[in-house]
Write a structure and sequence with these properties.
CATH topology of one domain: Cytidine Deaminase, domain 2
Number of helices: 8
CATH class of one domain: Alpha Beta
Number of strands: 12
Largest sheet: 6 strands, mixed
CATH architecture of one domain: 3-Layer(aba) Sandwich
């Protein structure tokens, strides 16, 4: 592969600090496009931070209902750019014949959904149409455990530590043990990477896991969590109204503002109980 994309790029900047100017080098989180192809046909392009690209592609395909399990993917590799050279910005996925997708129909649906917006009722109905089950209702965690999670996730965010410019998603056991963590400039991409890792290692559904995301808890994050079978989704910022609506309808415990030893539970608070 020629010039594989890097997660961090360094640039010259002018820094002002208390009236003093100095020229220094600054680390930036890389943002580059990733094109996902299935059977040679392009399905989508997402802006992401390079790294864990196969997991990102697998997680995205799973969230969109194109694959149901890791064995649906026969082969996943980097593809070729227009000049014929292998590039780190294209991922090629080959599926089992019985999992073939109508590329044209999917692209039309994807463009329509992206351009006109998705109403809450349609989003919830689409999950039910896919046969998405409600998450494990028996999973329990404690407030003390939840408040420890942001610090645990931050401790493994290596690129964020250098750039301050990345989101993260982390999977935890109910007792707070960190299972997996991924970083990306897009929080939805970080979630896809975590779910894609579980898919490729046949660890879905995530019925015994807590998912923590940096940033806000939008409906697309809730949707991905429900599809993956996550019982508890927490974010360090605010959820949206549609995210709360979807979480309540889907049986997901949604936690927001998880920082500074406090949090707010927006749905299904029974999974969070004092020890």
């Amino acid at each position: 592969m020629r010039h594989p994309p890097q997660r961090i790029k360094t640039t010259d900047v002018v820094e002002w600090d208390e009236g003093r100017e100095r020229r220094v080098q600054d680390d930036l989180a890389t943002e580059e496009p990733l094109e996902i192809r299935v059977g040679g046909a392009p399905l989508t392009i997402t802006m992401r931070t390079p790294g864990d690209d196969f997991e990102l592609a697998a997680g995205w395909l799973y969230a969109e209902g194109i694959v149901e399990r890791g064995s649906d993917i026969v082969r996943i590799s980097y593809g070729r750019a227009a000049d014929g050279c292998t590039t780190g910005n294209v991922v090629e996925v080959d599926l089992r014949p019985e999992r073939s997708v109508d590329i044209g129909a999917f692209q039309r649906h994807f463009v329509a959904a992206s351009s006109c917006g998705i109403c809450g009722r349609a989003s919830i109905d689409s999950l039910r149409a896919r046969g998405t089950r409600k998450p494990n209702d028996a999973l329990r965690t404690t407030p003390e455990c939840l408040t420890d999670l942001p610090g645990e996730l931050r401790s493994v965010q290596r690129v964020f530590g250098r750039t301050g410019g990345l989101h993260a998603a982390g999977l935890f056991e109910a007792d707070g043990t960190l299972v997996a963590a991924r970083e990306d400039i897009g929080r939805h991409n970080a979630v896809d990477k975590v779910i894609g890792d579980a898919l490729l290692h046949e660890r879905l559904p995530l019925s015994e896991r807590i998912l923590l995301v940096s940033g806000r808890g939008g409906f697309e994050i809730v949707q991905k969590a429900l599809v993956a079978g996550v019982p508890i989704l927490a974010s360090v910022s605010a959820p949206s109204s549609l995210a709360v609506q979807m979480a309540r309808a889907g049986g997901l415990t949604l936690v927001g503002f998880l920082r500074d030893r406090r949090f707010v539970v927006y749905s299904h608070a029974n999974r969070v109980a004092a020890a």
